[in-house]
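Input.
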Amino acid sequence: LELAMAIYQLLHAPSFQKESLYSVYGMNSHKNLFSSFILLQLPFLILCFKKLNGNWKLFSMLNIILIYLGLLALLQTKAVWIGCGMSLVTFLLIFIYKKIKFTLNLKVSIATLVILANVFFIFILPSLIERGIDFNLSQLKDQSDQQKRELDQERLVLWDKTYSMYKNHPLMGVGAGNWQVHFPNVTLKGLWRAEDLNYTFQRPHNDMLWVLSETGLIGFNLCVVFICSLWASLIHVIKTSSLSKEENFELILFAAIIPGFFTAAFFDFPKERIEHMVWLSLILGFCFHAVCKHLPVIRSREFNLKPKYNYLGMALCTFILACGIYRYLGEYHTRKMYDHKAQKDLAGVITEGNKALSFVYQLDPTSLPIKWYTGNAYALQNAFELSQRDFIEALNKNPYNRNVLNDLASSYIYTSNEDLAFNYYKESSRISPRFDDPKLNMTAIFIRKKNYKAADSCLKTLFHDSERRNNYQKLVNAFLPNQNH
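Output.
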């Protein structure tokens, strides 16, 4: 069904250009994730082709050639193309390594892979990213070309800012699931779509950098050690164990697909998709079974839990179920809150927003706190104290969102705390230099204080024309000559 849907969407795409192909999606969101999903399924289709007979064998071959490989070509996902190439090269290298007499020491192999991964991600990749950004900027011909250049290097900028987050929290990271909350703290400068079009980035488009920034060196190395240990052990089994031709081919196939998948994940974010994790877990589980079967030093262990621990397991499952239900209800009421907001039903926004809140659900999918929506609804009702209360709670949930900071500052204006308001406006403009609202609000404060020179300087930092900007500039220009005199 998923494949049929993709083919149907391809046939109705206006063209096979990059932007048109992003309309090809299913449960995987868009073409990039759909392509990596196909990549994970390829080894199973290849095994079906080898094991099945008759019409099923022909059907498997048609799936591989006409559907899977055809879709991978048509979807134009370069990350998955590179991943496929990596899998093919790995398959050939393992096959050659199997034939030669030389055998690598398993412990040395694991240690080498872990060290290489750390050296690459901690030392080499950051400098490569900086050089890539500098090169792209050096190709900037004129100001009109800037937006295109910024869009071209958007992923590099995301990676560079993710490293800035890691440097601020190198050991433990910013916490699992907190990337999109902490990301604006390293500023949105250089991300034109985030600043001017209000795009929200939810991940850095690189799964290993995502792990590094959220869990720090500890979590990153736990992940790297697990992957490298399993993969190196599998290669050792292929090299040293007496395997049947069928089992040998299966292990080489799975050993080849693992680096191919993680190569694709270097440019995308399959980690957040449960269907990717299910297929990857099946592959890793098969590999782990083979390692336990053929390496005498590694054995799976059985744990016999006492009956009293069953109650602990039941309590844990109940808690997980409750979290899932509350999150579902949160998303359901958030969807209804959006509808009320579109209809300008302020009371409905407040009611549905409060229903959405729970101990596991405080932010919407774009990382905006639910309390920001209810705070704005209260502000439009002129209930400024209630609005300020909700904005303060919103700031506690996401202290680096430019809209939360700007609107909290405005609430302090209405409650006569101008100095605190100015500080929040300043922080909002630091996070997003191209966001003009806080700068216009600071200009209004300067004008009220009759500091027209500072107001004029603030207006000169704006990036966009607007009626409000023009009105302020006319007012400032009228007073500047007298002040200068």
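The two ends are 77 Å apart (CA to CA).
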